[in-house]
Amino acid sequence: MLDELHEIVGDVGLLVGDDVAPFVVDWAGKFTTRTALAVVRPASTSEVAEVITLCQRLGIAVVPQGGNTGLCGGSIPLDDSNPEARPSIVLSLTRMNTILSVDVGRATVTTEAGVTIQALQEACAAEGLLFAPDWGARGTAQVGGGISTNAGGLNVLRWGSLRSQVLGLEVVLPDGQVWNGLRSLRKDATGLDLKQLFIGTEGTLGIVTAAVFALHPLPSRHRTAFVALPALDVLMPFFAHARDHSDGLLSAFELLPEEGVVRVQANAPQVVHPFPEPSEWYVLMRFSGGDEIDDALTSLLESAAEKGLIDDAVIASTAEQESNLWFIRDEVPPTFTFDERGKRHKFDIAIPVDRVVEFFERSAPVVDAVVPGTRTFGFGHIGDGNLHFSVYPGPDATLEDYDERGAELERAIDELTWEFEGTISAEHGVGQIMRDRLAGQKSSVELELARVVKAALDPAGIMNPGKVIPASKRDDEVGVGS
Ligand SMILES: Cc1cc2nc3c(=O)[nH]c(=O)nc-3n(C[C@H](O)[C@H](O)[C@H](O)COP(=O)(O)OP(=O)(O)OC[C@H]3O[C@@H](n4cnc5c(N)ncnc54)[C@H](O)[C@@H]3O)c2cc1C
To answer: How many angstroms separate the CA atoms of 186 and 106, rounded?
Structure first.
């Protein structure tokens, strides 16, 4: 197999032995594997197609990998201890990193899948256009990974998730055929929209090799404000006020607790706390537009203060101040370990936007009832109803109980999320960790439909096995509508 792979991708495209190490552990060091026979780094769509055809013939599993910043273990082959694990290759898209064209007339960009989010943002901005997706891992995460996880991030509130930016895709199918769907149409009513099959399905149905994205007019200016809330229960009234009085200029609305700011400062002493006196909760918000944004933001904050929705606010007046505020936001997820022993359960939930605070308040007694002394922590893209939420042992929790009852803690939060008509994965995807938990959220009809599609496209099951789509019906598939 290695000889044949070598013939396709050459020396530079094939890594074996110790060289595979960086590709078989995820960003957080949580998932690893010994089932990867090689890392294959093709340089073109035709090389990807040849590699897939070979793997199909030999029955080798293919695990696509972009920037490897995913948070659900999707880009790492299953660990050997997993009964579904099988010999696999990691197929890295890193060498397919050419931006093919920015079309100013159409306001579109056509790009290979291995281009990073930041590189695409910068290339489009140079042509006066906005590639809207944006999040903390922008310098490493790739557009192929973003498409495959239907990534969200900071700008969803104004411009939508990754799915809504994709106009066309090129995909290598599990049998090695190439589907060229690189269309740049804003409208197309000709039946099945096939590209949707490959958005958010994490390489289980094919390898995304290129994409056409819709672009937006580039706002000439941004203004960021860091706002102190008097209490958490004004969060959603303040959001509704901001949304309804911003003339469409609001482009981000992020919740941050003081606990998060303190932890970021401890890791990065250069960070300046925005306020001399701390509050318990803050909102980081951004207006994007033209010259009108200064007056619009100031008047919004004044009216919010008059209504008692905010206690205090600072507006960044220099680039340095602005980057200090966004640094705090970007660094909360990577630096926050909550517990010195590194123990926590992480959730990426979305619920209807008007019920976020209610959810947050209900969650504390729910986890405390499972393991007394367990605490909760939440932050994130609140304007989208998306809470990055963690459960960790407080000083009074018994660690043995916390360790032993991890699955119960997880289940308790999942069930609360469903009670609130929410989803247990808002934007991070499914990967390995969420796959079986989906049985509680999706009906057996829905899960069976997904299996039918998977079996039709990938009957040998070589594409990213053990991820996203459960292989067979489980006893606990009793979700709503089953
Ligand atoms: C600090 C930090 C902050 C983050 N913030 C956010 C955030 O705000 N919002 C958000 O949505 N995510 C966030 N993420 C998660 C992560 O960046 C996204 O999930 C991103 O989309 C993953 O892209 P990637 O290129 O790293 O993909 P990878 O991690 O390499 O892969 C992700 C999944 O997609 C599959 N895949 C990758 N490339 C392809 C391809 N070309 N074809 C088919 N399948 C493929 C993989 O097999 C895997 O299942 C954050 C991560 C970090 C580390």
So the answer is: 10
Of the candidates 201, 202, 192, 195, the one whose C-alpha atom is nearest the C-alpha of residue 180 is 195
Domain 99-217 belongs to what architecture? 2-Layer Sandwich (3.30)
| Site residues for ligand 1, CB cut-off 6 Å | 27, 63-71, 74-75, 93, 113, 135-137, 141-142, 144-146, 148-149, 151-153, 202-203, 207-208, 333-334, 427-429, 431, 464, 467
Higher pLDDT, 269 or 413: 413
The domain defined by 345-419 folds into Alpha-Beta Plaits (3.30.70)
Q: What is the pTM of this model?
A: 0.93
For 361-410, what is each residue's pLDDT tens digit? 999 999 999 999 998 888 999 999 999 988 988 888 888 898 899 999 99
Q: Which atom of ligand 1 is nearest to the CA of 27?
A: 53
Distance from residue 25's CA to the centre of ligand 1 (Å):
14
Longest dimension (CA), the chain: 72
Q: What are phi and psi of 479, to 5 degrees?
A: -60, 170
Q: How far is CA 261 from CA 220, 253, 466, in A?
A: 29, 16, 37
